[in-house]
Amino acid sequence: MASLLLPPTATSSTLKHNNQILKLKPNNNAHATCNVFLSNSNHYRFNSAKCHALFDDVAKGLLESSSVGVDQFQRVTEGLSDMQRWVFLVFGGLTWIYLTARPGVLVGAIDAYLLAPLQLGLDNLSGRRNLKRSDFVVGDKLGEGSFGVVYSGVLLPKNVDVDVLQKRGRAKTTQLDAKSKDKVILKKVKVGIQGAEEFGDYEEWFNYRLSRAAPETCADFLGTFVADQTNSQFTKGGKWLVWKFEGDRTLADYMKDRNFPSNLESVMFGRVLQGVDSSKRNALIIKQIMRQIITSLRKIHDTGIVHRDVKPANLVVTKRGQIKLIDFGAATDLRIGKNYVPNRTLLDPDYCPPELYVLPEETPSPPPEPIAAFLSPLNSPDLFDMYSAGIVLLQMAIPSLRSPAALKNFNLELKTCGYDMKKWRDYTRLRPDLQILDSESSRGWDLATKLVSERGSLRRGRLSAAAALRHPYFLLGGDQAAAVLSKLNLNRK
Ligand SMILES: Nc1ncnc2c1ncn2[C@@H]1O[C@H](COP(=O)(O)OP(=O)(O)OP(=O)(O)O)[C@@H](O)[C@H]1O
After folding, report:
1. Nearest protein Cα to ligand 1, atom 11
2. 479 and which of 56, 173, 182, 287 could share a cystine (Cβ 3.0–4.6 Å)?
3. Does residue 95 lie within any of the structural domains?
4. Tell me, what's a Pfam family for it (predicted)?
5. Using CA positions, which residue lies closest to atom 10 of ligand 1?
């Protein structure tokens, strides 16, 4: 039987048993009797034998209620000296802290080796992944990266075959009168280009991973198919990735317009801001966009993923005013070290932080995947994206930084100033209009200086997504209130 040792010198012991706080107190006459005070203020006196039995009961109860783990721990630690037991405890504790610390190597491993295969099985059963080329009609080309070409397209209804449509001369998206829910985006991975196949595999992997972990942050991923080589529309075979069409324009498209940010007002806030001073409106629109970007980054960073290509062209604006991340070809998952070293051509130098790689430069380059995963909790890899988010904030708030040429000049100046925005402000010849950032006690400016900066060490330096959301810039949530109001109005109509 388990027994609780109360040394003869002990004056009292407090224990919790059956939801009662028991205070056991030996009497002055040593072991002859003891007093038991219950938390319901009852008080009992026991003789020595009863007292001993009571201690035994309490000890047994404690051991039983403290889960099987205690039992196992006892078995494991049986035969160990006190010193060895302490070493065992400290080592176990540190391992646990390491595995569960951000970005969460343990949960990452569970996701990669358990949940991913499970999702694959379920998707196969439900037919979600059984896409084939004849399910789609491919439309206009929307973009071309180093490893893929992106097209608009339409997902055909189940009973319609693209070959039949082609024979009838109706195999163009414009001829299909597609409902918006059937519109898709297709990315064809280039064939015969070194690294392209790997890029396609990574992008597929990250999209499935995010559809499990943070689906609201990115475009809805429908799956992939491999085209045969015979069909003219899908020349040369190769892998295709398919997403739901999320919106006509990216943030970059909106920013090219002279009316930015007013051109986003109705999609983000409906008519809620009518009557508000125009500079305040602009500031609120920009704040809402930044809030959404950083909230999404916090979510993906919590899953251990760093996007590494955050820029206006990779942020799609949905018709409900949501900002969604696309293009995960350069992303990395630090919990399992996936795609740790991206192809450098995938990184956009205009939005890249000075440290370039996600781990600090001191890390021997390039560490193999498991080592990258092992090191990741010790670093702050997410800060890579926060720099890019800071550049997006600057471009939105300062009109003269929006063109690619101006951004390049800005980056040259910033480099000369050692990535110190305060120095840049005195140094620049770009005559920036800082009105939006300087409004509301310069909170926007302060946030920008804490994002567009050197990475720093041990979280002293650039702000993480979670810390940025706690910055005073976001505390006065006028933008959030307006967004909620506008949604309420929409729902009422
Ligand atoms: N889910 C989506 N919904 C709407 N539009 C999308 C979606 N995905 C991609 N696009 C459009 O396709 C364009 C190219 O997509 P993406 O950035 O993923 O491809 P890419 O091959 O990396 O091209 P690039 O190198 O030009 O960025 C985007 O800029 C956007 O306009």
Report:
1. 142
2. 287
3. no
4. Pkinase
5. 185
- Residues 6 or more apart whose CB falls under 8 angstroms from that of 302 comprise 102, 103, 104, 214
Q: What is the pLDDT along the chain (493 residues), one digit of tens a residue?
A: 333 334 444 445 555 545 555 555 555 444 444 555 544 555 555 555 555 555 455 445 544 544 444 566 566 556 667 777 777 777 777 777 666 665 566 666 777 777 777 777 777 666 665 788 888 888 999 999 888 999 999 988 876 666 666 666 555 555 555 555 689 999 999 988 888 888 899 899 899 989 988 999 999 999 998 887 665 555 566 899 999 999 999 999 999 999 999 999 999 998 888 888 888 999 999 999 999 999 999 999 988 899 999 999 999 999 999 999 999 988 988 777 777 766 666 789 999 998 875 554 444 444 455 555 555 555 567 899 999 999 999 999 999 999 999 999 999 999 999 999 999 999 999 999 999 999 989 999 999 999 999 887 555 689 999 999 999 999 877 888 888 887 777 665 5
The ligand 1 atom nearest the CA atom of 145: 25
Q: What is the pTM of this model?
A: 0.73
Determine if residue 126 is left, alpha or beta; phi over 0 gives left, psi from -120 to 50 gives alpha, anything else beta.
alpha
Model ipTM?
Answer: 0.95
- Shared domain check, 355 and 287: yes
Among the listed residues 309, 327, 385, 479, the single catalytic one is 309
Ligand 1 centroid distance, CA of 76 (Å): 55
Query: Coil, strand or helix: which one is 21?
Result: strand
C-beta of 327 in contact with ligand 1 (< 6 A)? yes
> Three-state DSSP class for 92?
helix
Q: Are residues 330 and 468 in the same domain?
A: yes
Residue 164 lies inside a defined structural domain of this protein = yes
Token pair recorded at residue 473: 């810039």
**Nearest C-alpha neighbor of 255 from the set 402, 61, 471:** 402
Q: What domain range is 410 assigned to?
A: 249-489
Decide if 120 contacts 141 (C-beta within 8 A).
Answer: no
Q: Which amino acid is at 10?
A: A
